[in-house]
Amino acid sequence: MAEKENSPDVDVVKDVATEVGDSELAANICVAPPTPKLKRSTSRLLRRITSTTSFDMNVLTSTLRPRKRKRKDVDEDSMSVHSLNIAPHSQHELPSEKKSKRRSMAKMSSFVNMLSPATTKRTFSFKAPSTPAAGGHTPQRQITPYKKPKPASIDRRTSKLWSDTVDQAALSFSSNEIKRQEAIHELVQGEVDLIEDLRSVHKHYYYPMKKLKLMTEKELDSIFGIVERLVPFHEDLLSNLKALRKADGTIDGIGETLSKWVPNLRHYETYCANQVFAKGLLDTKKTDKKVDDFLTRCLESPFSRKLDLWNFLDLPRSRLVKYPILLKQIYKYTEDNHPDKEAITELIERVEAVIKDVDVKMGESVCKYTIQSLQYLYDTQKSLHIEQSKSVLCSGQLKNDRGTKLHVVLFDKVMVVTRTATRNNKLSYQIVKDPIPLSELELIDLSETENKKGSFKSKVLRHTSHDKCAFRVFSRANGHPHTLYARDEHDKRQWLSCIQNAVSQSASLMDKTQPIESVADNSETILPDSSNNVETCLEIEPTITRKQETVV
Length: 552
Description:
Helices cover 52% and strands 11% of the residues. It is an alpha+beta fold.
């Protein structure tokens, strides 16, 4: 009987043993079927192959690959197609040949499955799709994920005392003189900081916003005002103060220099009066995403010191208010026989007079801006008293008896109850009812009066904390009442005091404008009794309380 050919598995194991270098195993391989000893040798071989790190897996895969006839121009993909017998040329083969190939491949796959699978690490990269180039090649570009930038360092100002800027030999002065020099140094250093901030406003805000066309030039001029024209005035003062400094670092007299410079403070009347409209326009423009993004980036920049644009624009006004405080500090440590003693006293009075005028201008601007923000629902709501008002005495949020939030404005001539509304990103105030002139206004403190009789709800809620915050206003002409509730008792007392003072001032002005009456008898001139007016002002609450019976 003819000798059987070795099985494919035996041939493969023999080839692997020869490649690895196990000549003993290769010599002992016999014909199929394999003996138990051969199986154990094969298992040991496989374990040694898989556990050896220096073994090249390409050798094993090339050895286990089924032997086929070499073909021309066959790539890896076509090999996989032939192995599955779906290639076009495999359709002409006989069925017996297909079955033998399938069996041999099945045996080969059974041997390959005995090997432990190799672990591989896959790397992923996310690449953005790009447009194809002119030559047809599509370049691949890797997108860098967004990372939030690290917080920028803040440019903090280091404040130094006068004693830190001079030699120790200069500290032989008296303690009183050293404190005077410290106060003068604070005045000088404040000018340095103010000039730096005003320059920063135009460098980092005005010019970039103008270049980026975030606002029109008219809007920028309305917001920034004359801030750029204030810089030369303060630079002039700073240069004059530095010129007075002696070799030892002291400044003797500043009265004459400041007296010549104080008239420049009148420019603050124009600047501060414009701030009311500038703040309203800036708040409106912040609703634009581009403007808000620009201001947010500036706020996170080192030059801002975590201050927004309005903080920089408000610096001149806060500096103006601080001048009397600095001058009083210098006056405190100035000797009585010093020439600046009398000059500083006069300077304080002049600066405070400028501040009062600035407050009046700002009050008129606030009144004008508030009047422009009013919206009349009916023509009957328009009042001449509103147009003639010059200042806003008090304004704030109150609630009515239904809990609706109202914005109440007390002008110097009329009281207006409104509701806040926003149109075109601009805050406005809609008048709820007809305005009440102060000459016709009546006030009732509900916490000091009896509640409405015949109401079960009023009896249950009598003397509660809710009633302690309530008061009522109405007009003697039309009798339309407004029951208003403050946030707390302290807020209510402020409203009552402000309304009472406004009514008193309005009554006194009306008395002064009345014509003087002359009496034929004795040819005596009778003037209004001021004592009666004072008594009426002091007893305004009892008088108003008596009016409650008629209103109810």
